[in-house]
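INFO  loader      accepted 1 record
INFO  loader      residues=269
INFO  predictor   begin
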Amino acid sequence: GVDHAVVAVLWMEYLTAFWSFAVQETAVTPIAMALYGWSATDVYVLFAAAGLLSLCSALGVRRASKFFADHTQLLVGNLLLMCACACLIDTPRYFLPVARFVLGFALLRVSMPVQRLVTLSVYGKVIGSRLQGPYFGVLLGVGTLPRIAGPFWAVWAINEAAAPGGRPHLYIEFSSLLAAATVTTVLCAAYSHRMVAPATASTATLEPLLEPADIVDSEQPPPEPTPHVSEAEVRAGRAESLSVATEGTMFIQQQRRHTLNARALHAND
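INFO  predictor   done
INFO  writer      dumping tokens
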């Protein structure tokens, strides 16, 4: 059957991934403009570069799947998210440098494809092939929740952390996301050995494919090879067979003549 504990962990993983996505899509533009005086064009360039990073990350997941297990990639994606959150946490007395801001945003964009793609892969294996529709419907519903509530949370957290009349801060927003990512990472590590496809049958109950009479004894000597016969020997054999057939025909004809002669003599008597 389906391991529902692992399914719940993957739901939380998916929710955390889309929570980070919703937060970064909402908070980056106003934060960059308010803290660093960036223009809208500067923000567009940042998002374009981030899109390239996401594409490279998705392609990297495809290649890494040939060398690493799914749960290992999932843990790497979670660690990237945790590092991103740590880079983006500031305090009222600490101004976030622009290099640290860009690095944290880049790590967010790299971690999201890893978490999303690997979660879908593991989820499909865990639930098996018979329950794909209902379970994936629930997973997509779980991913919808942070996309709806995430922007409202991001705006509230920024305004709540901002001093009256002062600049905005990110410590509430990304410290809470860091806490969620940490819990998710611990749960994924604890259940990593169970992130496999459910067993469908036991090998002990499988019927034998061969009957005992069909099993060939391995100690039986191999058959002797067929001797090679030359063309001349074949012709000689055919001639001998023809001679024997001719002699048999002559014998039958002689016996028939003797029988006819005997009947003629008996009729004369």
